[in-house]
Amino acid sequence: xxxxxxxxxxxxxxxxxxxxxxxxxxxxxxxxxxxxxxxxxxxxxxxxxxxxxxxxxxxxxxxxxxxxxxxxxxxxxxxxxxxxxxxxxxxxxxxxxxxxxxxxxxxxxxxxxxxxxxxxxxxxxxxxxxxxxxxxxxxxxxxxxxxxxxxxxxxxxxxxxxxxxxxxxxxxxxxxxxxxxxxxxxxxxxxxxxxxxxxxxxxxxxxxxxxxxxxxxxxxxxxxxxxxxxxxxxxxxxxxxxxxxxxxxxxxxxxxxxxxxxxxxxxxxxxxxxxxxxxxxxxxxxxxxxxxxxxxxxxxxxxxxxxxxxxxxxxxxxxxxxxxxxxxxxxxxxxxxxxxxxxxxxxxxxxxxxxxxxxxxxxxxxxxxxxxxxxxxxxxxxxxxxxxxxxxxxxxxxxxxxxxxxxxxxxxxxxxxxxxxxxxxxxxxxxxxxxxxxxxxxxxxxxxxxxxxxxxxxxxxxxxxxxxxxxxxxxxxxxxxxxxxxxxxxxxxxxxxxxxxxxxxxxxxxxxxxxxxxxxxxxxxxxxxxxxxxxxxxxxxxxxxx
Length: 546
Fold this sequence. Notes:
By secondary structure, the chain is α+β, with helices and mostly antiparallel strands. It contains 18 helices and 23 strands. The N and C termini lie far apart (about 60 Å). The N terminus is likely disordered.
């Protein structure tokens, strides 16, 4: 009898617990709290907008409130206003109406960073390095690069006038450009690399619409040119994009019926599993994936799934660690909400999310200590860990730029030297990494009175101020002379690195960005390591535990 009573009490407890869970999901109190606090917020908003001592902009006030609210969640849950919706279209639909220009700021001026081959600006002769002055009569001097970009974008078939200033040309130049449908490519370069040109290389910059199909076409093209000995998929600085495209890319290398990624969220509708369906086109081809700290989200799904199935060797740095899934919810007045709804889990069962958000007032991030990271196994039994993005199989740390290189970039001297060179030379006369290139660059820097301050100089200046009343002029001058010699020595020591930067800058001017990417692979340490792995079958199999 007592046993029966225990069972009855236990059954009742289970029912009560289950009812509580259901209530937690559909708790009517949450709707009351939403209504209550929305009413309070709207009253505060109305009173401030109408009665505050100074006139306020109601739209800015509301957007500030919305953005502050969302900032307590995570960096990826954001409000998207009307002006940003076109950028969302570019990401999801891989196209927009424009003239084929990427613009940015160099030395305080709005300049052409890239003139895309095949489009109106390129065909009319607008070059990298041109300074943009006006668009349709509107001065761009005070505009941000994205605002300038918006002026060039528009309905395909319409025209736009652009006035530019070019180094070495006295008068300003005006171009009449026709907007076209710009197809933003996911793959910015693919080709054959290695001494025997028998290894395919694919540079995937984003996971927009048709990314998986572009990868398929690239592999088909490379295999048609050459019987491939291996393939390098470069995901460095790829921030991700569409989930289905990541799954579709893994599908090219893994047998059908294999899970690629799961999403797990608060609601059942956000719990999904995505797997391979196609017969792989490159099932046996040795594969190396390149990644770095800028590889995130969809990039990590691809690298992580291929690592979990021991299908590819991952080379480079630790990936970013973004394992949160967003959906875009359309809102009123052509606005949207990008909302985090679930987390990614890859085949081994591990999450790739590297930090936890506290959702407190400061929304601080918490990194999981190594002692609390869980271990998982790949298909071949290799140990991998969660909570840190994707760790590479072969780690290659990228070299941080020196102070000299950083200052030269900040002040735009590589860029400006290339502009000057192009204005004075019809063609690129330098052979690859010619010593003459560095000599001419040094002469340019002398003409520009280039200098930069080292940490030693900063300390010396402080010392001079503190000892101003003492006769140390001779000693200070001797130290300054030593610093100048040290700077010259740094310039010479970094000569090879500087020549590479300069040469690539010039190649982009004369031959375009595609040629620039192709040439840059000759200097790429990660690509060199990938080739070494592919060309050594024993090492490749040993890394993967085959």
